[in-house]
Fold these 3 entries.
Entry 1:
Amino acid sequence: MSPPVTSDLAYIPPDGGWGWAVVFGASITVGFSYSFPKAFTIYFKELQAAYKVSYSQIAWITSIMCAATYGGGPISSILVNRFGSRPVVIFGGLLCGIGMVSASFCTSIVQLYICVGLISGFGLALNLQPSVIIIGKYFLKRRPIANGLAMAGSPVMLCTLAPLNQFLFDNFGWRGSFLILGAILLNCCVAGALFRPIGPATGPIQKEANKEVKETAKAVGFLAATEEEEDKERCAKFNQYLDCSLFKHRGFLIYLVGNVLMFLGFFAPIVFLAPYAKHIGIDEYSAAFLLSILAIVDMIARPATGLIANSKWVRPKIQYFFSFSIAFNGACHLLCPLASDYAGLVIYSIFFGLAFGMVCAMLFETLMDLVGAVRFTSAVGLVTIAECCTILLGPPIGGTLIDTFGDYKYMFIKCGAVMVVAGTFLFIMNYYNYRMLAKEEKAVGTKDPEHGRTVNEGSNNWDSEKMQDGQELEPLTDEQGLKKEVNGLSEA
């Protein structure tokens, strides 16, 4: 029998009630954060004609937007720890709306980079991370279900936005469409308003209380702070957000290298799918519908993949399943040039949606399997910072190949080859990591958390890991909680 799920929070999460309203709001913000850059590609062909730029230049819009969304993650986390999820998401929604409304008045491609890429992209970053954090505060036992429902907002939103963008363009042009999209993105502010704070006092109130305690202690003589102690405290606060000791973690480094390589070919096929369909003579609505097909399959693939990955046959070696998903994704892109008509592209979109959903469903689960729940927040911050570089370069490199050869097939071949190589690398290195872990366990008789926790044999290990749910995303606001967290990381 599984042990009861416990939490280190100073309160008991309700696991329901208003939390379901929070999940609904999170599905909106998460949906916009992940799907908006993909659906925006509907306008690429028209923007290219309007500004007379190349494919690589137009692809920088989505690249900058995705890079700002990923790269802004650590900043978003710090702001949430300081002000809470609700104001951060509301501010992010305002940035998204302002960016798109400003884009409707742009007269150069560089201005679009700033308005759509940087401003709206950073606004999406302020929507994504707080949504994940607030769910961790409202749910504990039902948290996997709540996260699954929130993440399902991405394919649902993509199904809606892709044809909607084409409809808006046909009726209002791209400038009018950007104005309307700016207003639609303001719904993130409404969703953020649902993120009602929960738990003990946080933010400025708690900091003021801590300040008063410190001043009282100084007056009585019980607190003798030195410069060395202050330096250690600053270092501990930094490690709270980004635990740089993870760079000594073998499993984390394998994951990081494989994912950085993977993202060179992960987003470009989505960016150029609709333009490629238009290039071979398919009408605009049918081209936009390809993204909807991809999103529908993705919507089904994510929960199905989660169920398979959580089974007793796959869970102990989940890293292999993740490696296979990446290689399968690459194989789909390698076969895409064989699709020369709409029926072929529909088949490609189905398999692409399946492969894309498999990768997305396990992207963060495999990272938590490697580093553990306590260090997961820091790991995500470090990974997103590294990944934003290849996310930024991937679509423009694909656009350069299209400009150079005048054919989309070389872009798909490049993306497919990169992802097959990334999947193969992860498979080989994870095999090495599993072997080393087995040797270390045999020699020491226990797991060494400093080199990865990927060997989760049986259900007891998985149940014991679930006992930590709810604490990795909870900001530590008092000095005692901070020291406990740091000590926990250093002892691991």
Note: The first helix runs from residue 19 to 39.
Entry 2:
Amino acid sequence: MDQKQKVVLAVGIGAAALLGAAAAYKLYKKSNQMKTSKQLVKGWKACGVVSQLHIFPIKSCHGIEVEEADAQKMGLVSGELQDRSFMVYNESNNFLHARLHPTMVLIKISVSDNKVELTAPNSGPITFSIPSQSETEKQVKVRVWGDEVTAFDCGDQVSQWLSQYIFQQDTGARLAHLSYPEISPRVVKSKLGHPWMKPKDGGVFSDTTPFHLLSVESANDLNSRVDGLEISASYFRPTITISGCQRPYEEDDWRFVRIGEQAIFRYVKGCDRCVLTTIDPATGIKDPDLEPLRTLRKYRLAEDPVLRRAIGESPLLGINLSLEQSGRIRIGDVVYVGQL
């Protein structure tokens, strides 16, 4: 065999290997998407306890700590509080977020008898009614990362209040709402490197899935690596915070999680972090050194080359979950990981 034939053969083998790897990955992805906890879990092992539960009623705004909540398909629910059932959007109907408008994290909400009150620093409170989902004239199509969602606009009064707080003008921001019982999951587009993701794993207004779990041990380990800044789990806006893990980042390897006796969650993907993690949730001020994102990039970039190509330089911390079985969860509940 001459040198030219050797080169041609090597190229052919390389191409075949690439095609084989792609086919294998496609089969792996498809098979994993079909599996459920009932098919895979052989037993449950205790791995920690719930230390905090947070509901973020308005996307990118202040969270509310609760003692217990119902884990429903679209997120945590406690009384009239529903996680990310409200979303601020602009005049182009695209969502507004704290990555570009950091002081949004200081907007607080309370809900009682279908009435909503918003407060924020240097702004008087505003109260308005949640729009009825029978009011078709208030329907509006809004977009979350390019995905279109039909929601209901909350009116001009709160629009002016939000616009003045965010933009210091009378227009530019509006508020949309969707009530959980009336909606279906937003269909999310699966990416390479996310073999556990299913099309209906999306939330309503959340970036991807309705649930985000983070361990205190992971947050503490990161905190020990960042100089001059006190980093808590709250910087990462988890809905479920747990403690008592044997090691930091243990949650990376969990594929099914049970909390208490009923609620079961399925791993969808590691949570890729963005500039929102650099905004102090207590002050709304972005860290000038982009911490803790800068430190995370030193040791928490995706190791899998397929996933790395998909998410680039976004480091991973915590996990995104989808709900397999609903149930009530409480602070202090034992958290179990499914033994596959």
Note: The chain is about 20% helix and 30% strand.
Entry 3:
Amino acid sequence: MVGAPDVVKPSDKVEAYSPHVNGNPIFTISDEIGSPDSGFTMASMNSNGDLKSPGSPPDKKITEADAEKQPLSGKKEERWWNTLMQVAVPFFIAGCGTIGAGLVLGSVRNWEVFQVVKAIFVLVPSLSGLKGNLDMCLASRLSTQANLGNMVSPREVISMVVGNISLVQVQAIVAATVVSMFAVIVNTIVDKAFNGDYVLLLIASAIFTATTTCFVLDFVMVMVIFGSQKFKVNPDNVATPLAASIGDIVSNSVLAVTAQYMFEQIKVSLWQPIALLCVYYSLLPIWVFIVWKNKYTKTVLTTGWTPVISALFISGIGGIVLDQAVEQYQGYEVFQPIVNGIGGNLVCVQSSRLATNLHQTAIPGVLPENTRIIEWPWKTLFYGTTASKVARMLLILAVCGQIIFMVVADFVYQGFVSLQFAFGITYVLCSLIQVMVLLYLSYILIHFMWKKKKDPDNAAIPYLTALGDLLGSVFLGLAFVILSLFGLEYGNNVPN
């Protein structure tokens, strides 16, 4: 076989890939399982010695019409109904969590701390987004490892889990500090005054909320992924939505309770927020040491900050929109977490699947055959690419789910169904546009990062979830503005 190496290193693993093509056998070459320094994860070598995706046979062009028929993973293609069921069940469970998050925010908005320290509203989408960024990146990384068959050895699994949980704690402490300082700046500009006590309150509340919710959700994520493997379910389909199902409601609840408690304490003494900050900043070097010594997370510690920090500021802009809209439009704070959460959950499913597909079928820096970074929107959303089949399912789930979640949230919040037809149509339309934009951007962003040899499991999800928060907040705000212009505001038909 021309171009094939004469000697195979002991560390290399060679497996026959069946069936043969044109009488020539295909071989799959991969380095040691779990090696973080590998140049590529899996690639096939044809009779000419060229590296190609095992998802497409060598020397065979895939037409545009057949692109959608190619399996999304390098293994056996999932049946569409299996994918739909695996995504739909955790999606609706996650929807219940977002409804709870909206109801929590609607009930605590009148608490004293939310009335006095307006900057807390800036923290709400930022911390929810931070939780999503860190935990969904963790889910995407572990799902990829599970699909690559690397989560087999108990020792390797423990090392992988400990390293990733420690990494999330480091990122949570640093990122929460950054986003709380952003909230302080916004609060100072709005109130035209600086209060040092409120600075301690915001930083302490943000760090405690971020680290606690991430720590709990990390273990939920690990159990979900292990359970998925046991029951032969693709973890890319279920891990991120299931983890997010309790994430938003836990994040909003912990933030509200912690902020109110700290607000009461700073009236007497500042020692509690100061002590809390000292404890967390003392633990930070320990977490950094664990991550640095772990082969699975060492690289992310030094290279994974730009997406997380950038996403925080994007979500922070959404927080400013929330802060302004919650004062003018009744019910905005109830529906905003639902729109943001559902959009973020769905795009994370798609991005996790796309990242796993690239890990299985391509080498970093090289896109699969007949794959372009920028594709026509209808090809990525409806028909023409491998991503379109799942995208169609996600769009259908977005419409059906938002109708159900909207009615349930309204009924729980008002005590009866008060929705008007105009509000329902406008709400569903704005959420659908948000999901369509996110799915299209995820296709472009993940393939662009892969072309630049950046792991999309670490870099793509923070941007996508943050954009989901921003777009959801803006589109929902526009919906409320348009409805108000025609006198169709939410709740205007509710008797006093």
Note: The chain is about 70% helix and 5% strand.
